[in-house]
Amino acid sequence: MFDATAQSISVNDSYTAQQLVENILVNSSCANVSNFEVKGDSFSGTRNSYGYFNSGTSSFPFTQGVVLSTWSSKNSEGPYVSTRGGGNSSWLGDSDLEQAIGIINTVNATILEFDFIALTDFISFNYIFASNEYQGDYPCNYSDGFAFLIKEINTASYINLAVLPNSSTPVSSKNIHPLINPIPNSFEPIKSCGPENETYFNGYNTASSPINYAGQTKVLTAQTNVQPGKTYHIKLVIADQRNESYDSAVFLEAGSFLPKIDLGSDRLLTTNNPICFGESYTIDTKLPSSLGYTYKWFKDNVAFTNNSSTFTATSPGTYKVEVQLTTSCIASEEIKIEYTPEIILNDTSLTQCDIDNDGISIFNLTKVDAIVKNNASNLSAVVYYETLIDAEAKTNPITNPTAYSNKFVNQSVFARVSNSFNCANYAEVKLIISNNAIAVQNPISTCDTDGTNDGLSQFDLNTQVTPQVVAGLPAGLIVEYYLNPTDAIVQQNQLSNIFKNSVATQQIIYARIVNGTNCYAITPITLVVNTFTPPNFQDETFVLCEASSINLTVNSGFSSYLWSTGASSNTITVTTPGDYFVTVTNSEGCEKTKKYRVEVSGIGTITKVKVNDFEGNENSISIEYTGIGDYEFSIDGSFFQNSPMFNGVAPGEYLVYVRDKNGCGLSIPYVAYVLDYPRYFTPNNDGYNDFWQIKNLDNLPQSTLFIFDRYGKLLKQLIASDLGWNGTFDGFTLPTDDYWFHLNLENGKIIKGHFSLKR
Q1: pTM for this one?
Q2: Phi first, then psi: what are they for 524, rounded to 5°?
Q3: For the segment 642-662, what is each residue's pLDDT rounded down to a tens digit?
Q4: 156 and 185: one domain?
């Protein structure tokens, strides 16, 4: 009967409008249809643009159905032949289609129309839109399209059901296509446009496809609610836009146009819409009782008595209803219902302390969140309300749950907790004011030991304060500390365990005694910092002379003394150098430590004296010495200096000393001589400067002195004990002139120089 190949659909274009509707599209006694009409190509020959199709053994999604096309319906048979098209310019479009999908200039319209009486409140059918516009950049510019138009009989306006799911977007080649990339072309470049609703595009066809169209959509469903018992008019229409050469078609699945019962979507955990635990759910056919239908209900395939259009479910299961619409028509539908697990919450209480005993305090409700939720991590955050009615209605939530002031004594608030399905449960939280009595706390004292003596010191609250606070109280209590009572109430700005007072000498802090999430009591704690500044307690340094002893003494009047030597008196005697420490303690138990540094010193020993002489004003003495003291130096026994170097020393005999600055004594004196020669002499027998001589040379008895005239003639040789030279040679008086000398010292040093004889 059909001439299609095994891999393609087959098309029969001889069917009438009534046959296409009654025998193919509907094919059921459950649909009351009439007034059939079909319009299509009447200009291109004997072939019709509408017909019946069968998938045969091909991969086409529908087994059979109705095809409406914009060319001969027989041309819809596969395989796909590129750019193949047809139609006729005299074959007009359809204004209703143009209005429905928002286009103009349609041509080659094919229309199937009929009336039907709704037996239920819901209808639907499945379809595929295919088009040869899915080539090049045509989807960017041409909007071949399809409309499923419905209206109640004798009304003016159609509703288009051929729209994308959950939208008002009509089905057309321009509204459903993938990304169109630009392709250079010498004739006419192919433009580009972005994808449009690409998720509904099923892809491009090939030479092995079962239909002769370049591309097609996925299976789409047109559906709507209707009023049972009323008559509706259906108009199915497809058309090309502007160009009759590239054609399109719609494939309508056989038997998909049926009246259906709409029980709504399944209520499943996997689809995130289950019924909340403990709630009921009304399953509604939405069929009016005036129609007189008969109902039969099932749960998990077991029938139960209920001849009503609704049923209220209170447990999970698969529910089914069969509705006797006519004597020969039964419609059925089922719905699966699942329930969420029960949200297990705990009622609890929260105890808070009351500083002023007025029964009103500040509660941090969030402290019991985990208790309320059973530590369940998969539940929502807890929201608190002042009444259960507000909690159930989700109205007037407590906006400051971390700092909520109760309105009256023994008040309760209510916690609302939801699961991921937005199901809720509720718990009561009682707000209790603690009335536990606690003894007045003794001050906690410490000493200022940080060296600044400013009345500020660190306290280890856990070890210095907590044992006193919890003494005599039940076990398991925890103590927290705060600067003020408000912080202690709301548990904000908790002090660290190591706390340094910010108010000098004395400061009050507040201990909050905690029992789990509850406040047991709040009590003030006075912290006292004692200062200790004994007079004359600076560190001292003493000098111990070799082979002697000294006494180290600290003031009397302290409670105790402890020296680094182990002594416990205020005075000790030491004979060795080093650092000594004494710690004194006053009546408040505060300690202060003083350091004594004992340095050893002693008498110095001169090991050598270096004399630089015969240099006039540059004569000098340098003292070399040994010893452990701090020394000063003298060459006359009266004037002492810090340096062992003496410059500008006049010729003469000197007693050199080294003296300990710490008073340990003088060294044994050392004799030193500074020699020099006169730069002139006047031998005129006046008793003054009559001889040229080198003073103190007699202290160097092995020395020899030679005198020469300017020509190198030896005039006189002297020894250390000689009186000197009187300016004569062989009894003759020598004239005024410069004369020269060579001094050979006993240490081998030779001094040369010259001097003047003046008459």
Answers
A1: 0.53
A2: -75, 150
A3: 999 999 998 888 999 999 999
A4: yes
